[in-house]
Amino acid sequence: MKVSVCTPTFRRPESLNIVLGALLSSTDRFDEVLVAVTKDLESSTNEVTRHLIEAFTMKGIPVKVVADFSGLCEAKQWFLDTAKNEVLLFMDDDVVVETSYFDLVKYFQQADVGAVSGTLQTPLDVGYQDWAGVPIDVGQAQTCNTLTYDSVNKRFVWVDKYQVYMHKTPFVSDKCQYLIGTALFVRKDAVEIDMEFQRGACAGEEIDFTYNMFMNGKRLIFDSTRIAWHLHMPSGGMREMDRSLDKDNMSYLARKWGFADEVADGCGVYREG
Question: Which domains does the chain have, with CATH numbers?
Answer without folding.
Answer: 3-257 (3.90.550.10)
